[in-house]
TrEMBL record:
Residues 81-292 form the Smf/DprA SLOG domain. This is DNA-protecting protein DprA. SUPFAM superfamilies: MCP/YpsA-like (SSF102405). The gene is dprA. Pfam families: DNA_processg_A. Gene3D superfamilies: 3.40.50.450. It comes from the Bacteria. GO terms for biological process: DNA-mediated transformation. Belongs to the DprA/Smf family. Coiled coil: none annotated.
């Protein structure tokens, strides 16, 4: 249904009633068919509504100051918004236990029509987690997917950047309002602008100038999990916001895929724990594409080596990143011989040197 202004005002009115949760309210609106019908039922003491809910709704109805304050607050909304009553509101998000009644936005809501994939991870990034994130999103680029994440420093920002690089639409869900004076984190304002400029979307359930608060972020995570059929967990400690998002996804009967990692890496403990407890193991983008019923499986392009040494180097680097000295020792060749081949593979965009001075596959 498409909500008119009166329906939106009533929805906003209901949302301000303490004790009336969004999940309960949405169920009531669906049962009665509209906010107006629910409002009228409360005024007429409809026995099907129940005495407690009737009292919750009737009390602010009779409070003129409350009504005036709510109407004034509603009239002051400056941000574009969707309501749960609108056709463009994401259908999967409607189905969670406590869906947001209002979604304030900047950008293109049409990308919400695509199927979404939520990507979450830690604020700290290891070289392994960075390369895995970039590779998986690059492999997903042929598919009509929207990449959803939280704009936070770390894997979130990296996911948005990888989506932009590969011409995938991306949506950032914030724990603050959308005004740049309060947008969190401030270090990612340029990224937020770039998302909008590239036909992406910023979303928040908070009005424009709402400052970030600690309790906003677990609530934000339920939106991230609710937007998508699948959430992929790249990295995270055992107790982290990343795992909260994964747990919400599991609670809502959504699929979770986790990237396996080194058991000695703190940031792999979260994903490894999820896998141990039944989450899907994320080995490549193909499993994600299959889960979304996209038939265009990806495959790595066949690499043309100039000589046998380049192939030997590539095969060793596939096992683990190595320094130039380690390669020299394993292949029993001089640094100069190794370095020439490495340079050729770098030029071809096959290998790169990471922050630890190791050679790794791109």
């Amino acid at each position: 249904m498409k909500s008119d202004l009166n329906e939106k005002l009533l929805l906003f009115f209901f949302s301000k009633i303490k004790g009336l949760g969004s999940g309960t309210l949405w169920s009531l609106i669906k049962s009665y068919g509209s906010c107006q019908a629910l409002y009228q039922a409360a005024r007429e003491n409809d026995p099907l509504l129940g005495s407690r809910l009737t009292q919750l709704i009737q009390q602010p109805q009779r409070n003129k100051n409350f009504q005036t304050t709510v109407k004034k607050e509603f009239d002051q909304i400056q941000e574009n918004y969707l309501t749960i009553l609108d056709d463009d509101y994401p259908r999967l998000l409607q189905k969670i236990y406590d869906p947001p009644l209002f979604l304030f936005y900047r950008g293109q809501t049409k990308i919400l029509k695509n199927q979404s994939l939520t990507v979450v991870g830690s604020r700290k990034i290891t070289n392994y987690h960075q390369s895995a994130t970039e590779k998986i999103i690059q492999q997903l680029s042929p598919a009509p997917l929207t990449i959803a994440s939280g704009l936070a420093i770390g894997i979130d920002a990296l996911s948005h950047q990888a989506a932009l690089k590969n011409n995938l639409p991306t949506v950032a869900v914030l724990g603050s309002g959308l005004s740049e004076t309060v947008l969190y984190p401030q270090t990612n304002i340029q990224l937020a602008r770039k998302i909008i400029e590239n036909n992406g979307l910023l979303l928040s359930e908070h009005p424009s100038h709402t400052r970030p608060e600690l309790h906003h972020f677990p609530r934000r995570n339920r939106i991230l999990a609710g937007l998508s059929k699948i959430t992929i967990v790249i990295s995270g400690a055992l107790k982290s916001g990343t795992l909260i998002t994964a747990q919400v996804a599991l609670d809502e009967n959504r699929e979770v895929y986790a990237l396996p990692g080194n058991i000695n890496m703190t940031l792999s403990l979260g994903p490894n724990s999820l896998i141990a407890n039944g989450a899907n193991i994320l080995l490549s983008a193909n499993s994600i594409l299959e889960a979304y019923n996209f038939n265009n499986k990806t495959s790595s392009p066949k690499i043309k080596f100039n000589n046998l040494l380049e192939k030997k180097i590539y095969d060793l680097i596939q096992i683990e990143p190595l320094t130039l000295e380690q390669l020299s020792q394993k292949l029993k060749l001089s640094l100069m011989e190794i370095n020439i081949s490495i340079s050729q593979l770098e030029i071809q965009g096959i290998l790169k040197i990471n922050q630890f001075n190791q050679i790794e596959i791109i």
